[in-house]
């Protein structure tokens, strides 16, 4: 059974999604979905252990060897990603039952769980596969389910947001398709490692260059990298809370993974960073993204919007780390992937709890919540501190490595700008804190009760993880380091 | 050299027409139509790549030795399905948008949203 | 080409949709010219068939006029030109169209052409690549369709409908009477279409066709039936909840083939172990997964269409009720 781990990761949720329909009782489906998520989580842990101990696992689907068949190729990088996605997916699922009872009508529940599992399937598939076209197929599974999930939001703006996302996402996917097509045309293969070998000979051609450009732009659309981020804020703000918590923590991460995978593994570092001024372009876009998004976040009235813009800023940090193009830089990016997933899912889940109790996440509605929902609000405070990058939280760890990486590479201005960006985070987090703790409760509103334990459990699990991995960095740093070193071909 | 590439250029032109419809037009259905054209032209590109001169359809038969490349065909079969899936979902969204906003024009929807926000 | 430009200029959405259908048909014939019969088949049934139908169903709800343009298209034109320029730039170093020595034809593909007969044992190479070498992509594709199906359902499905007012049935009845000839002709046609779908389904090994095309044709036949006899009659014959379950069954059927081969000690979707003899195993595997594809595609397409149509009817009923209220108010 151990040999089948890579494929089980994807097939378990894939088969579970249609099975949901046969259960058709909200609670039952939830328990089932939760079990499925946990199974994939355990599976990903086993995979990671296996990969760390014995190196890359290759799994040939249908028994056809690559490049004729499709292969799964699990190395340290995607094993790490699988773990991030599956852990967040599972923890968020805990709160799903409670949250969607308030936010969705009864007859949508089964559909919701199916879509959630399919979305999970899509992301696992993208991360695990070693075949370029297979990426596209699974990308579409995850995107289509994401559009549908977002459109489940109560507000009618959710529909509009989902539609915009659909248009942008499909353009992105089609760009990726064009890129893959050109690559195929020049090399005759779709397998990533085979591509890497064969691209060396044709790397100088204009077609490969164009393919590269299309892939990068397509991925950046999915990534919501500034200035291609326009679909993101509304999509996050109007989706059901659970969906926001899940997607915010996972979907952009998958896009970052794709970026790393294509530039490092397929095209190779020397091509990616010499043939184009990619490093400079992405660095600038990342930095501008951090500032524009953070400043926009400060002026938002809807707390979900604040956090959504902050997500765009965080994507900026990841891209900065990536474009420093050193082993430490990429390691910082990977760490930030993990850490940002932890803090954003905690924050958005806490918002889901607020939504559950007061039915709104407008900033003005937060007045006095600090005393009425102490546990939820303190979770938001800790998550916020982590977002800023205060020591003893995970946010600090990744910012720290990001600073080290930029200083090592001699990019002092970048380091300074990163620090400045963090200052902006203080401002928008402070607005929430101020509202919740230093304003009297809204007059005319009944006392708000603390969130139910089904919310508090997962929220605090994530918050504790935030602190734990902020203090004991051995595990996460070790994995991220190993993954990034393997990308640069350094053997530890 | 130009003769050898003309097919690709037509495809590029088609792609750009589709792409233009998607980003420049305000009507949501029209946007989806544009998306379809954009995708279909990418399909034609793939199939052109797989074309072999004097080859025949990739179904094995006696006496034929040159076949066109089957792999792009397979990929595009998959991609067509993905395309129709996206279109269907997009149309469903448009229907819902029509029901809740009462219109399917991009700028009108944005106006309505702004009005809403100013009120609240 | 001309059609595409016409689509840009038109503001009447109905005409646009019609043209899109024609565009689909033209590209399908283009695929035939390029020797891609399987793809042509699919594009004809999808581009000219299903997607047109769905779009038609959608514009009956949303209205068919596009507002005249008010914004400046300059920025979009700029973006389009940059992208197009990039593409043209990319084509510069491409191998010539149809060139036999292009890298595409040197690597990977030759094995499919030369050895698929021994390894998979069916003459249609496209089917053997689709069903066996790259079967996992196809599984993904079925999952995409399935996702779209639930997505549409989560957006459009209505709570169980109550009995419709009597008057409504009467008017619908009348309308159907008017189309008597069409009804009889199509009634005679539908069984043949369904038969043809089955033929396509099981003949995919030898000629162009397969589960996907068959599913689409099958769905199209029933959609035709629905259009002529009304949604209610159709749903009496094809129960929507059964159809939904069937969509799930198709996907499960496909995936369980993979699981079975895993249980038999081989990798996921390795058909060689399904029977004593590798070739028979491949045959069984491909047959079953094509069946799974066909079931899911047909039922998802149907349920999408039913959902669209149910929305339309609900909307019309609402309008009618509103109209009646208005009338009574004025009285």
Write up what this structure looks like.
The complex is a heterotrimer of chains A (492), B (120) and C (331). Chain A is 78% helix and 2% strand. Chain A is mainly α and 492 residues long. Chain A has a domain at 277-492. Chain A starts with a helix and ends in a 5-residue tail after the last helix. Helices cover 77% and strands 0% of the residues of chain B. Chain B is elongated and about 75 Å long. Chain C is mainly alpha-helical and 331 residues long. Chain C is globular and about 70 Å long. The termini of chain C are far apart. The chains are: A mainly alpha (492), B mainly alpha (120), C mainly alpha (331).
Secondary-structure-based class of chain C equals mainly alpha
Task: Count the DSSP helices of chain B.
Answer: 4
Q: Can you tell me the overall shape of chain C?
A: globular
H-E order of chain B = HHHH
Helix content of chain C: over 70%
Most strands sheet of chain B: none
* Percent of sequence in beta strands of chain B: under 5%
- The CATH class of chain B is Mainly Alpha
Q: Give the CATH topology of chain B.
A: Helix Hairpins
Provide keyphrases for this structure:
heterotrimer; B: 120 residues; Helix Hairpins; 77% helix; C: 331 residues; mainly alpha; 13 helices
Could you provide a short overview of the structure?
The complex is a heterotrimer of chains A (492), B (120) and C (331). Helix content of chain A is 78%, strand content 2%.
């Amino acid at each position: 059974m151990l040999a089948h781990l890579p494929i089980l990761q994807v097939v378990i949720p894939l088969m579970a999604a249609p099975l949901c329909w046969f259960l058709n009782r909200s609670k039952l489906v939830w328990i089932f979905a939760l079990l499925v998520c946990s199974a994939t989580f355990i599976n990903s842990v086993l995979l990671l252990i296996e990969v760390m101990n014995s190196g890359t696992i290759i799994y040939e689907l249908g028994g056809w060897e690559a490049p004729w068949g499709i292969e799964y190729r699990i190395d340290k990088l995607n094993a790490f990603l699988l773990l991030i996605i599956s852990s967040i997916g599972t923890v968020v699922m805990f709160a799903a039952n409670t949250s969607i009872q308030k936010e969705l009508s009864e007859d949508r529940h089964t559909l919701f769980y199916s879509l959630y599992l399919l979305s999970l399937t899509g992301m696992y598939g993208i991360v695990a596969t070693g075949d370029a076209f297979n990426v596209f197929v699974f990308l579409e599974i995850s995107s289509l389910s994401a559009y549908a999930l977002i459109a489940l939001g109560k507000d009618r703006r959710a529909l509009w947001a989902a539609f915009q996302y659909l248009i942008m996402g499909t353009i992105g996917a089609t760009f990726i398709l064009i890129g893959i097509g050109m690559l195929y045309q020049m090399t005759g293969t779709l397998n990533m490692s085979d591509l890497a070998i064969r691209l060396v000979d044709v790397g100088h051609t204009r077609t490969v260059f164009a393919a590269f450009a299309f892939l990068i732009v397509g991925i950046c659309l999915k990534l919501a990298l500034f200035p291609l981020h326009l679909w993101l804020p509304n999509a996050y703000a109007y989706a059901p809370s659970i969906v926001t918590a899940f997607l915010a923590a996972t979907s952009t991460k998958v896009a970052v993974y794709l970026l790393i995978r294509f530039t490092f593994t397929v095209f190779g570092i020397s091509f990616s960073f010499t043939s184009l001024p990619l490093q400079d372009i992405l660095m600038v876009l990342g930095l501008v993204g951090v500032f524009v998004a953070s400043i926009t976040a400060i002026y938002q009235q809807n707390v979900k919007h604040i956090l959504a813009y902050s997500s765009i800023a965080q994507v900026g940090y990841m891209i900065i780390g990536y474009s420093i193009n050193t082993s430490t830089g990429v390691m910082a990016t990977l760490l930030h992937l993990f850490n940002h997933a932890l803090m954003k899912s905690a924050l958005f889940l806490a918002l889901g709890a607020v939504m559950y109790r007061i039915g709104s996440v407008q900033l003005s509605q937060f007045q006095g919540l600090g005393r009425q929902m102490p546990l939820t609000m303190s979770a938001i405070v800790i998550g916020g501190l982590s977002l800023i990058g205060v020591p003893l939280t995970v946010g600090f760890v990744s910012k720290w490595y990001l600073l080290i990486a930029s200083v090592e590479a001699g990019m002092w201005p970048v380091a300074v700008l990163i620090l400045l960006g963090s200052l902006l985070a203080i401002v928008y987090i402070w607005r929430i804190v101020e509202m919740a703790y230093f304003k009297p409760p809204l007059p005319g509103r009944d006392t708000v009760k603390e969130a139910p334990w089904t919310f508090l459990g997962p929220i605090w699990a994530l918050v504790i993880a935030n602190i734990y991995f902020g203090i004991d960095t051995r595990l996460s740093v070790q994995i991220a380091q190993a993954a990034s070193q393997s990308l640069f071909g350094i053997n530890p | 050299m130009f003769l050898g590439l003309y097919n690709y250029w037509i495809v590029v032109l088609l792609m750009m027409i589709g792409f233009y419809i998607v980003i420049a037009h305000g009507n949501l259905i029209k946007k989806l139509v544009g998306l379809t054209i954009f995708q279909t032209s990418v399909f034609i590109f793939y199939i052109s790549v797989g074309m072999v001169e004097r080859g025949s359809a990739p179904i094995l038969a006696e006496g034929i030795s040159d076949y066109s490349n089957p792999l792009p065909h397979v990929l595009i079969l998959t991609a067509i399905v993905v395309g129709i899936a996206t279109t269907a979902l997009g149309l469903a969204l448009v229907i819902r948008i029509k029901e809740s906003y009462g219109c399917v024009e991009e700028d009108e929807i944005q106006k309505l949203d702004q009005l809403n926000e100013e009120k609240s | 080409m001309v059609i595409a430009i016409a689509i840009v200029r038109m503001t009447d959405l109905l005409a646009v949709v019609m043209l899109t259908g024609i565009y689909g048909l033209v590209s399908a014939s283009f695929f035939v010219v390029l020797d891609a019969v399987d793809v042509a088949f699919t594009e004809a049934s999808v581009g000219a068939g299903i997607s047109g139908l769905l779009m038609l169903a959608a514009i009956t709800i949303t209205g068919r006029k596009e507002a005249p343009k008010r914004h400046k298209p300059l920025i979009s034109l700029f973006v389009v030109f940059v992208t197009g320029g990039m593409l043209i730039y990319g084509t510069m170093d491409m191998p010539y169209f149809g060139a036999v020595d292009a890298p595409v034809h040197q690597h990977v593909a030759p094995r499919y052409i030369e050895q698929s007969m021994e390894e998979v044992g069916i003459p249609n190479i496209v089917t053997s690549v689709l069903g066996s070498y790259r079967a996992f992509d196809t599984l993904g594709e079925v999952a995409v369709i399935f996702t779209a199906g639930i997505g549409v359902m989560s957006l459009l499905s209505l709570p169980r409908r109550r009995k419709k007012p009597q008057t409504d049935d009467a008017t619908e009845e009348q309308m159907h009477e008017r189309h008597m000839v069409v009804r009889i002709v199509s009634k005679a046609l539908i069984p043949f279409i369904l038969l043809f779908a089955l033929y396509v389904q099981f003949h995919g090994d030898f000629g162009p066709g397969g589960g996907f095309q068959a599913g689409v044709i099958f769905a199209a036949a029933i959609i035709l039936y629905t259009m002529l006899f009304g949604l209610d009659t159709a749903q009496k014959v094809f129960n929507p909840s059964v159809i939904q379950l069937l969509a799930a069954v198709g996907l499960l059927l496909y995936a369980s083939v993979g699981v079975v081969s895993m249980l038999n000690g081989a990798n996921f979707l390795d058909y060689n172990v399904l029977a004593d003899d590798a070739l028979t195993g491949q045959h069984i595997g491909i047959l079953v997964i094509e069946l799974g594809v066909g079931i899911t595609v047909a039922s998802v397409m149907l349920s999408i269409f039913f959902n669209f149509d149910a929305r339309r009817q609900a909307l019309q009923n609402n309008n009618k009720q509103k109209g009646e209220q208005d009338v009574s108010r004025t009285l």
